[in-house]
Amino acid sequence: MEIQDRVYKTIIVDEPVIAEVIESAPMQRLKKISQDGPPHLIQPQRNVNRFEHSVGVWYLSKLFNRPIEEQLACLIHDVPHTAFSHVIDFVVEDERHEYHERFTEKIIKESEVPEILKRQGVDLDVVLEKHRYPLLENDLPDISFDRWDYFMRDGFMFGLLPQLFVDEFISGVKERDGRLYFPDMRLASSFAILFMSFSRLIWLDPTSHGAFLLFAKALKRALELGVISEDDFFTDDETVMQKLQSTNDDEIRTLLEKLSPGKEFSYASESESDYYSSNKPRFVDPLVEVEGELVRLSDKITNFKEYFSEFATNYKMIGVKQNL
């Protein structure tokens, strides 16, 4: 199997079990779920889906020759994601943005994935034990396969990360004892600076923040009226949107009208904002190899400590106002 990927170009899938899982219904469903969620309604250039991200995370694990169980864990890690991705966390007010992870085992075990793995001689229970795979997902400020892929994918999508940087990061990151690190201080610094920049320009963008809050408000209203149910979140973006658009409720219609291409948001003070709430400022303080030891970049270039602290403080609470 060959997959054409916008970041990694031609990906060769040579493991039968990986190819079968990629073709399975739970994985194919991810093609209909936006990686960025509702912001793409206002900014159509945000056109990455959960499928390509999941394949990208798997591909990174393959490059590092991880065991097949870990590769599968990387491939299916986003299978339980809800329609419009993390917007559900704003609906149920989950500040850790982990609502979908409660349903991982249920969704996967009720699909054809268990039969595929059984036929190929892979233990599903081992695949689902995510604590075994710190390279897949770990806590900030470390690099993980998941964090690494969405950083490069979103940066590339917005034209902020040239292919040269993608290639340098892929060849420049190494692994030791279950931790990703840079042997090169220059490359580590570039990664940290770019990650924090993308966090500000993409994930903490005022339009991104405003779109999530607007759409969450529409979804809450739709749930109250019975227009949608919680089960609908496990369909896809188009199904949920069609149900919202079918209602005659004025409040929902007004909110959806505001979620139209070009209706951007700007930052605003708390008193002048349409929405003011907490957000999730993200930065990476990568490990660097210095004289054979792995240390934090900020321990060697101490100005980073100040930059990270200032960034986390300044963007913990965000006020936004829509430009109508």
From TrEMBL:
CDD domains: HDc (cd00077). InterPro entries: dGTPase-like (IPR050135), HD/PDEase_dom (IPR003607), HD_domain (IPR006674). PROSITE patterns: HD. SUPFAM superfamilies: HD-domain/PDEase-like. GO terms for biological process: dGTP catabolic process. SMART domains: HDc (SM00471). Residues 50-151 form the HD domain. It comes from the Bacteria. It holds the Pfam family HD. GO terms for molecular function: dGTPase activity. This is HD domain-containing protein.
